[in-house]
Amino acid sequence: MRGAELLAIATRRLTSAEVPDAGRDARRLLSYVLKVPPGRLTLFLPEDVTPELEVIYHTLIERRAERVPVSHLTGRRLFYGREFLVTPEVLDPRPETETLIEAALALPIHHVLDLGTGSGCILLTLLAETHTAKGVGIDLSPEALNVAYWNRNALDLGDRADLVQGSWFEPLTRTKATFDLIVSNPPYIGVDEMAGLSPEVRDHEPRMALTDEADGLTAYRHIIDHAGPFLSDGGRLMVEIGPTQGAAVAEMMRAANLQQVSTIPDLDGRDRVVLGVKATK
Predict the structure, then answer these.
(1) Of 12, 150, 215, 238, which has the highest C-beta tally within 10 A?
(2) CB contact at 8 A, 79 and 90
(3) By the 8 A CB rule, do 111 and 180 touch?
């Protein structure tokens, strides 16, 4: 069967399963199976696809129809121009998180701490973009850290990124480490919001990385209350937030005596990042 025919069948199947952007996902998966760049797929559509690859493609389409994320089917996700390994043990890197990257890169970075690092996409992107900075990524999940280790090695950042298992700041309590930048994309979905998430997120991403099983603000309270000793004078604390949490998180930062508190929108105009700066003595 020709590639164009396969693609049409797959698009109809995903559309019938009410998969958003069915045509896009069908193309992405066909590009993956044929091992061709997505931008060049059209050149290969008139060609016949081998029966073996047809079977693989149909299998992937059926799994996508079951709402398994494309990144879990391909094992990869593009983030800020780099490809990251993604598994069901980590959050799927999202374009909205690139708002945090852009804001962090607005000033020089020397020593960065990433709390709840997951795949490592935030920490490793910041290090790759700065070339000389060093950093630490902490995550409670050993399975998530295995993914971060893989991504760190793939990006050749082993000499600049330390990955540590633990809960928030706990692994650093016996050290005197300070950072000029602390970042985090913590679990911020309220438990009562979980049912409304898409099946791709609700059923296939790690629950502990999505929700605090409470109001969605628990992680911010802990991070902001404990960040002070680990921030250097003039250091920045930056957290990704849900679009309705800006005012609450900004108030927490002000109550913790952080200065220059501001909320940064994403490209869709929704509140996405809250920033606070530790005062210089």
Answers:
(1) 238
(2) no
(3) yes
pLDDT at position 281 over 80: no
Q: 3-state DSSP helix/strand/coil percent for the chain, to nearest 5?
A: 45, 20, 35
Number of neighbours of residue 167 by Cβ within 10 angstroms: 12
DSSP assignment letter at 24: H
pLDDT beyond 90 at 176: no
0.90 surpassed by pTM: yes
List the alpha helices (DSSP H) in 142-270: 142-154, 199-202, 207-210, 218-226, 246-255
Query: Could you tell me if 264 and 272 are in contact, meaning their C-beta atoms sit under 8 angstroms apart?
Result: yes
Q: What is the pLDDT of residue 39?
A: 87
Percent of the chain with pLDDT over 70: 100
Distances in whole angstroms, Cα of residue 72 to Cα of each of 91, 124, 174, 240, 281:
10, 20, 37, 23, 47
Tokens in use for 94? 């999202």
80-113 core/surface letters (b: 16 or more CB in 10 A; e: else): bebebbbbebbbbbeebbbbbbebbeeeebebbb
